[in-house]
Each structure stands twice: as structure tokens, then as C-alpha cells.
Design a protein that fits this description.
259 residues, alpha/beta, 12 helices, 44% helix, 12% strand, binds adenosine-5'-triphosphate, binds magnesium ion, P-loop_NTPase, Chromosome partitioning protein
Length: 259
């Protein structure tokens, strides 16, 4: 399955969701390719930190070269430091490729062979590269943080997709990241106010949520593991949320205890 994680709004958790899903899927024994189309290269850094001469490797093997050569294959795929996960690193040269046809980008993003899952991280914007990544997906996840502005940007993404790629707009689902059980108890909390805006204006809302927890930062920056049985509530809730999300997408029942 090709899953693109996208949002015009920055900082909502796109890269974190990509890493969590990819690592959980990899722990299920699936072969996962993570494609980093974001100039901020968050997922590239996460998967390659500590690998010797990685800077040089990423100069030679990256998504920009894949776009130039018209294919994703061994010339641009890098083995990551995680078992069962490979990565196509990001590149600053993407800046010069924004005028590429989105149909061609879609074709290239769907070209890798031999993987069970492809996860695509995107820049927080709307351009031809993002549009190509949205067109390439079997499923598009758009993480949401609870701000009114986030609602406007979600509505904007949905409306752009409905105009440019109406069939793909049906594959766009909004995922409430930053969910707090505590705030859901107060009718006037910002979370409930924003939630009611989404419920009124947008159909494809996922019932599975991911918790707001500082553990996400520890996961991505300090390489801590997500564990169902962790005494750290945020960690345990996040592990449960990610398992639930994957089981919902793949119609599975498995629980990965640690990933
Ligand atoms: N569920 C969450 N709870 C708490 N913090 C979170 C959560 N998800 C992400 N974060 C934190 O929010 C920050 C932004 O997350 P992330 O980099 O994944 O967002 P992004 O949408 O990819 O950002 P960008 O648009 O810059 O690429 C990070 O510090 C991350 O640790
Ligand atoms: Mg990101």
C-alpha cells in the first residue's frame, strides 16, 4: 500500500506519523520504503543518523535524482538503520524540480518494486511535488492539531484535491493527532470546538486518534521505543493508537508490543 502523509499546515505531526507507522509496519515483518519529499528532511535524518558517511551517500542517492532519472530503484534507495525499513532521502535540489508534472511525479513515486508498503512524507505546502505525492497514494492521511487555523487549512487541502484530483480526494482522511482525553470532557475546550468544526465541514474523519504526548519528541529525537506496556502513559497510549490505526487501515488485529 502507498500511504502519503500530508497537510498544508506545518508542524502537525506528518513526519512523526510516517515514522511511527513505518516502524510499526516493519515490526510486523513488512518491507517498508519511506520516501522523503520534504526539504526539511526529518525522516531522512531519523533513519540515517549514525550511519557512516551518510552525508555523501545522500548526495548520491536521493529523491531528486529519482525524479531526474524517472525511477526509484537501487540508485536512490538507502538502507536505513532500522530493520525492514529503506529510505529515499530528501534533497535540496527538490527546490528546482517544483515545475515537474505532477503526473510524472506520481508515476515515479509508484515505481519502486519489492516493498510491502511505501510511506511518503511531504512538505507543508501545496505544489506539484505534493500534488504528485497525493496522486500516488492509495491512502492519504492528514494529521490534525487542534487549532481553528488547522481546520481552514484542512478544508483548503480537501477543496484543492476535489478540484484537481476529485477521485483521490475520496482517499483523504483526517487523523486527530494531539488528542487529549482530558480536554474532550470540557464542552468549551478548544479541542471540542475545533472537533465540531471538522464534524460539520468534513466527512472523512478517522475514529482512531493519536494522543498529544511529549513522548513523540523523545521517539523521534532520542530514539526511544514505543511500547504498549510502558509505565509512561503517553508512550503506552501512542503505541495503542498506532496499532489501532494500522489495524484499521489493514483490517488486521495484531498488536506490536514494542516498536
Ligand atoms: N501527538 C503529538 N503529541 C505531541 N507532540 C507531537 C505529536 N506529534 C508531533 N509532535 C511534535 O510536534 C513537532 C512537529 O512534529 P512533526 O515534525 O512530525 O510535524 P510535521 O507536520 O512533519 O512538521 P513539518 O511541517 O515542519 O514537516 C515535533 O516536535 C513533534 O515531536
Ligand atoms: Mg515533517
Amino acid at each position: 500500500m502507498v500511504i502519503t502523509v500530508s497537510s498544508i499546515k506545518g508542524g502537525v505531526g506528518k513526519s512523526s506519523v510516517v515514522l511511527l507507522l513505518a516502524n510499526n509496519l516493519a515490526s510486523r515483518g513488512r518491507k517498508v520504503l519511506v520516501i522523503d519529499t520534504d526539504l526539511n528532511n526529518t525522516v531522512t535524518v531519523y533513519y540515517t543518523m549514525g550511519i557512516g558517511r551518510i552525508g555523501e551517500i545522500c548526495e548520491r542517492q536521493n529523491i531528486s535524482l529519482a525524479f531526474s532519472t524517472g525511477k526509484i530503484d537501487d540508485r536512490n534507495i538507502v538502507a536505513s538503520r532500522k530493520q525492514n525499513v529503506w529510505v529515499v532521502p530528501s534533497s535540496l535540489k527538490l527546490l528546482d524540480q517544483r515545475s515537474m508534472e505532477n503526473v510524472e511525479i506520481k508515476r515515479i513515486l509508484r515505481s519502486p518494486k519489492g516493498f510491502d508498503d511505501i510511506l511518503i512524507d511531504t512538505s507543508p505546502t501545496w505544489d506539484n511535488i505534493v500534488a504528485g505525492a497525493l496522486m500516488a497514494a492509495d491512502l492519504i492521511l492528514s494529521p490534525v492539531a487542534f487549532t481553528e487555523y488547522n481546520y481552514n487549512m484542512s478544508a483548503c487541502l480537501l477543496s484543492k484535491m476535489q478540484t484537481v484530483m476529485p477521485d483521490q480526494a475520496k482517499n483523504l482522511y483526517f487523523l486527530f493527532n494531539h488528542w487529549s482525553d482530558q480536554y474532550s470532557k470540557y464542552p468549551t475546550s478548544l479541542q471540542n470546538l475545533v472537533l465540531s468544526m471538522y464534524r460539520k465541514g468534513i466527512d472523512n474523519l478517522l475514529s482512531v486518534t493519536l494522543p498529544d504526548t511529549r513522548f513523540v519528541d523523545r521517539y523521534t529525537n532520542f530514539d526511544e521505543k514505543c511500547c504498549i506496556k510502558s509505565p509512561h502513559t503517553g508512550c503506552a497510549r501512542l503505541a495503542a493508537g498506532v496499532n489501532n490505526l494500522i489495524n484499521m487501515i489493514y483490517e488486521d488485529k495484531k498488536v506490536v508490543e514494542i516498536f
